[in-house]
């Protein structure tokens, strides 16, 4: 009798151990189906990768999320959605996406960006910036203009200026460009590349202090232009490598990945 009691106690203990072990591995049991805790961990990793770190306080929310997903998935299976062609096609696309993402991550892991590559890319960017820093011969021009609607008006203004007329006063009274007109026609310092072609061509042809002798026609009307000054344009300061290194690393990484993708496509036999 004593032996039978001991066996019964042992059996009861064994039955109790199995559910506890299963519970440790599972996040929940939904309609009798176990939901692995690994799903919570995978969801937490996704959130963290998306820039939303998971705190211990968020564990109940994560558990509820995977429980809801399991509930919905079970219902979808009841309705036979997992048997449809659309579902199978979507699953194949999802499988491909996961595999491809893993492939590219594996490539980046095995082909890290080197300091030499970062330096080379940075130097190239600096050189390109310096080359394109100052279009228009590397100069800036300080000019004034008087803008009117007709060629006849512009010719009369040029004639008045030759007789000793004051450019600034005429600009204030007659220029249709009210912004610069209020400043005596002053356009401030400008790079020729930032002006309409007809205007910039006429402006750079002038010497310091000269005024155009014929009206300059553009999409805005007719201009009378006076060049007040010219200076060498200052190249913009380029940030130090330490300040932009993360962006440069990312750019080089993307370039390497792009070449890897192109090499795989080129090597593939497609019929």
Itemize the secondary structure elements and their pairings.
Elements: H1 2-25, E1 26-30, E2 33-36, H2 37-49, H3 59-78, H4 85-110, H5 115-131, E3 139-148, H6 151-162, H7 167-174, H8 178-181, E4 186-190, H9 197-204, E5 216-218, E6 221-232, H10 241-267
EC number: 5.2.1.8
InterPro entries: PPIase_dom_sf (IPR046357), PPIase_PpiC (IPR000297), PrsA_foldase (IPR050245), Trigger_fact/SurA_dom_sf (IPR027304)
Keywords: Isomerase, Rotamase, Signal
Quick recap of the structure?
With 271 residues, the protein is α+β, with helices and mostly antiparallel strands. The chain is built from 10 helices and 6 strands, in the order αββααααβαααβαββα. It has 3 domains: 22-82; 84-133 and 240-271, no CATH class; 139-232, Roll (Chitinase A, domain 3), CATH 3.10.50.
């Amino acid at each position: 009798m004593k032996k039978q009691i001991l066996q019964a106690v042992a059996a009861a203990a064994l039955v109790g151990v199995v559910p506890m072990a299963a519970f440790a591995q599972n996040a929940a049991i939904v309609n009798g189906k176990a939901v692995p805790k690994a799903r919570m961990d995978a969801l937490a990793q996704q959130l963290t990768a998306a820039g939303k770190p998971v705190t211990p306080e968020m564990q109940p929310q994560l558990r509820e999320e995977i429980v809801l997903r399991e509930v919905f998935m079970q219902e979808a299976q009841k309705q036979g959605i997992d048997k449809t062609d659309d579902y199978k096609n979507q699953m194949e696309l999802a499988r491909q996406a996961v595999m491809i993402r893993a492939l590219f991550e594996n490539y980046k892991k095995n082909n890290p960006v080197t300091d030499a590559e970062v330096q080379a890319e940075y130097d190239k960017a600096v050189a390109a910036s310096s080359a394109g820093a100052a279009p228009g011969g590397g100069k800036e021009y300080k000019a004034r203009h008087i803008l009117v609607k007709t060629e006849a008006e512009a010719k009369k203004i040029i004639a008045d200026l030759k007789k000793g007329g004051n450019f600034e006063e005429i600009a204030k009274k007659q220029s249709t460009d009210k912004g610069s007109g209020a400043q005596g026609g002053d356009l401030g310092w400008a790079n020729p590349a930032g002006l309409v072609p007809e205007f910039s061509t006429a402006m750079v042809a002038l010497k310091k202090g000269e005024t155009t002798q014929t009206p300059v026609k553009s999409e805005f009307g007719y201009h009378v232009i006076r060049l007040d000054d010219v200076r060498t344009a200052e190249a913009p300061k380029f940030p130090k490598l330490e300040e932009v290194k993360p962006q440069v690393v990312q750019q080089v990484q993307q370039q390497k990945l792009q070449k890897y993708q192109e090499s795989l496509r080129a090597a593939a036999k497609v019929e």
